[in-house]
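Reply to dn_fold:

You asked what the input looked like. This is it:
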Amino acid sequence: YEAIGKIPIRVRSRYGYALDPVFEGMFLASALLVEDGIGSTKEVDQVACDVLGYTVGPFTAMNLTGGNPITAVGLDNYHQKIHSWYRTPEILRQAVADETPWEVPARQERVDVSEQTFSHIRDALLGSFFGIVGEIVDSNISNVADMNMAVEIALDVKAPFGLMNSLGVQESLELVERYAADHPGFPVPECIRDQARKGSSFSIPLVLREDVDGIAHVTIRRPRQLNALNQDAFDQIEQHFRAISQDDDVVGVVLSGFGIKAFVSGADVAFLARIDSASMGEATSRKSQSSVQTIEDCPKPVICALNGLAFGGGNEIAMACNARIARSGQKVLVGQPEVNLGIIPGAGGTQRLPRLVGVEKAAELLRTGRTVSSAEALAIGL
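and this is what came back:
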């Protein structure tokens, strides 16, 4: 699946698996808000877009997909097979019977929602969202890293565990607890309770490690950002390579990126945008260099499997490996485009590139920021 551009996750078997209960559960939470008279379908759609980042709200999504009948079946089955909060709300049964669409905002319409109504809908949507996703992790059919990524990409909403971290895990737990108190049968996930007790944010793996026959396969996985690097990714690369260096069971490493488009597309724009002073720029650069250096210092051979393009920090990471292998025929493989942003490579590119391809060729590539094909990369010794 990954080889054809999809984003698979491993899920243990349970009715609905990992993502359908989120999509249909959030529709249920939205429908209950309407049934209870807290807001209209248009108001709930608007708040869902504002708070959870929906591209279109849950009622609009249901109209677009024609999903009323299958959602009604799914919710009844979840009631029997997952827990009792799941059920088909009466307004959905009526909509299925009447074959009527939901009243939703028109394209580009902005629905005005009173402050009190917005707050009530916001809290209910967040509490149900966190509770639904947390229960799936508690069930052990999936995990925090996979659910955080898959919910964001497949349902086109904010990443749930990242959102909890942003709000604060304790506040997120309180939202779930309030929702559960108002909705019998809705469980408060133990994974959120545990994290709140620890007083820290959820650790969300962006760099994964899987050992196979003595080889550590390390994969940078941020597919929505084309595996662009932020500080968490740099830190996790360093943690993995420090652990691998001390692991006697590992004899070699393959470092790659997730998917088929990019090994690493560079530094995350938001990561760079936070740099607001020369001192912060230097500190960020030195921290990035430290992470990349752990790859070069690893006492095991490290092979970079360039599954796609490697720009900026991606190429700097690749050059820290003992060897680089790429698919042939790639018109655009690597580049150091930093000059186009008015900066220079900050994670070792100015030092490793001339050592690999010579000073003259490196100077030209660093000065122009032009890209290099897989054929040219092979010819110049990169």
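The chain is about 50% helix and 10% strand.
Hope that clears it up.
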